[in-house]
Amino acid sequence: MDIYQQGKGYDEELVVSFNELQILFKYFTYNLVEEVNGELQLNLNFGGTRFIPHAVKKIANMIVLVPRFYDVNSERYVGRQMYLDINTYLDLIASQVFIFSQKDLENLWRTSRNSLHELESVTVVNNEDCFLLWLLSSGFKATCSSTTFIKDYSKSLASNIIAEDTDCQPSVKRIIHKIVEGSLIFDNSQLLLLEKEPVITAHILETDNSVREWKAVLASNCFTCILAREYGINLVSVE
């Protein structure tokens, strides 16, 4: 993560980029951090004029940002036109999951003139958040209710998987169903650093009839979901 400031006083802007190429935030410094119901959030705009709040969460010894776009229709967000819709957001993130070190987070907090004590409230990512991040890594676009987003999005995604490169038992489609029904959950205590291993690619039919490829799980273990290009997270069965 690269962080630098430009301008002075009320005109001071903070620029935050991820993997040197992806701009996460470019705006006035005081607009970046917010606390909502005890949860620390970063208001990311990806260099544009509209925002998406992201919860700051722990995963193993790393930090992950979880989008909260399905909260945008709540009463708190009066100026809803200021916030990105899900499909525009997916175009901007290009299937990325934003995972970085605790040191990067502390550096960001210092640079944005926030107290490091605030970071003590950062909690571990939960099962729903892991599921959301994995689904969004597909890049699949769908129109879903804000109140039942994950349920609607996962159902739409699964129904649009038309093929998988290699036979996987259970299939990616079946894995999604098992997570929804609660018989599989994510092991949020570990984040796996992936080598260049064979993967199962799910082929997803988009609304414009194009086909999107999603590197969903490892071929050697269908219960390791790919969260980002270099990270994976395991699923465990619930008895």
Structure commentary:
- With 239 residues, this protein is of the alpha+beta class.
- It has 2 domains: 2-125, no CATH class; 128-237, no CATH class.
- Helix content is 21%, strand content 34%.
- The protein contains 5 helices and 15 strands.
- The strands form 4 sheets. A 5-stranded antiparallel β-sheet has the order 4-5-6-7-8.
- A hairpin with a 3-residue loop joins strand 2 (13-18) and strand 3 (22-28).
- Helix 3 packs across helix 4.
- The longest helix is centred in the middle third of the chain and has 11 residues, at 149-159.
- The protein is globular, with a radius of gyration of 18 Å.
Q: What is the arithmetic mean of pLDDT?
A: 88
Low-confidence stretches: none
What's the helical proportion of residues?
Answer: 10-25%
Strand composition percent: 25-35%
In total, the number of domains comes to 2
Number of strands: 15
Largest sheet: 5 strands, antiparallel
Label the overall shape: globular
Rg, nearest Å: 18 Å
Structure classification: alpha+beta
For the biggest β-sheet, the strand order reads 4-5-6-7-8
Order of helices and strands: EEEEEEEHEHHHEHEEEEEE
Oligomer: single chain
Report how far the terminal alpha carbons are from each other.
Answer: 40 Å
User: DSSP helix count?
Assistant: 5
